[in-house]
Design a protein that fits this description.
Length: 289
């Protein structure tokens, strides 16, 4: 099960991994703080995978490779897509259908809606994949329902993968600044027709992990930092910056100039200003079930 927005946009920058239940900022250039999110250890990982550190990967012979390739020929990997946007579903469908002719992936169903209300059968999927979709699901009962639906959708010995920004990400920081500046205001004079802005609140990795823990779901987490670069020169790049901020704010009722009029938002942008471009530090949690 895939979230169509992110297949269409290809937003996920790096592939996730397992860290034995710890959330780790794995930037090689400097030491980042590490904090415990669940309990696990290398012995459990070895027992679950059936591998130990001393074991080496088996090298397949040419005959074995041919047998494996032959067994895969003709197989179809059925993919179901879930999104609130028909446009995103359409683009994601095109992305799959226009893939290499030898690709086994085929879209078999499109679902419009959110994960918290999606009617999923228990243990339906070998792989369940959600990239950043949890961020727009409201904390509380909706997030709990979404976490439960996602966890129960994965078959025994299947894989569940969730990508979601951590609270220290630039996205989460800007979202909080925007809400405090323009949404939480009692007057709401600058948002005359923005019902989504008044109800939306970005859900972070910490929120998702709390719900999984509350549900008793076994999981592993690692984080991957990356830099989101947006050029500054030219009207085209100005529109890209404005669109990016609209997406993170979950509201497009204000222009870039109106957004930057707030002192704290202006300070945030200044902190990420690198002269000819903006560089926003993102921290993405990769949660595997």
């Amino acid at each position: 099960m895939m979230l169509a927005e992110k297949l269409a946009a290809k937003k996920l920058k790096k592939k996730g991994g397992m860290s034995g239940g710890k959330m780790v900022n794995s930037d090689d250039n400097d030491g980042e703080e590490e904090y415990e999110l669940s309990s696990s250890d290398s012995e459990n990982l070895e027992r679950e995978t059936g591998l130990s550190k001393e074991e080496k990967k088996k090298v397949m012979t040419s005959d074995e490779k041919e047998d494996e390739e032959s067994a895969l020929n003709g197989r179809v990997v059925a993919v179901e897509l879930l999104s609130t946007s028909l446009v995103c579903l359409k683009h994601a469908l095109e992305e799959i259908n226009e893939n290499d002719i030898d690709s086994p992936f085929r879209a078999v169903a499109l679902h419009r809606g959110t994960l918290d209300v999606f009617k999923v059968k228990p243990m339906s999927y070998d792989v369940a994949y959600n990239a950043f979709g949890f961020e727009r699901i409201q904390k509380g009962t909706s997030l709990r329902a979404a976490a439960r639906a996602f966890a129960m959708s994965v078959k025994t010995n299947g894989l569940g993968f969730i990508a979601v920004h951590a609270a220290k990400s630039a996205d989460a920081q800007f979202h909080a600044l925007y809400r405090n500046a323009f949404v939480a205001s009692s007057t709401m004079t600058m948002l005359p027709s923005s019902p989504t802005a008044s109800s939306a609140s970005m859900t972070t990795a910490e929120d998702v992990i709390d719900e999984l823990h509350r549900l008793g779901v076994a999981y592993n987490v690692t984080t991957k930092p990356y830099q989101l670069r947006i050029e500054k020169i030219g009207e085209y790049n100005r529109r890209i910056l404005e669109s990016y901020l609209h997406g993170v704010a979950m509201d497009d009722s204000l222009t870039l100039e109106e957004i930057c009029a707030d002192a704290k938002v202006a300070q945030f942008l200044s902190k990420n200003d690198r002269g000819d471009h903006f560089s926003f530090t993102q921290i993405v949690a990769h949660v595997t079930l």
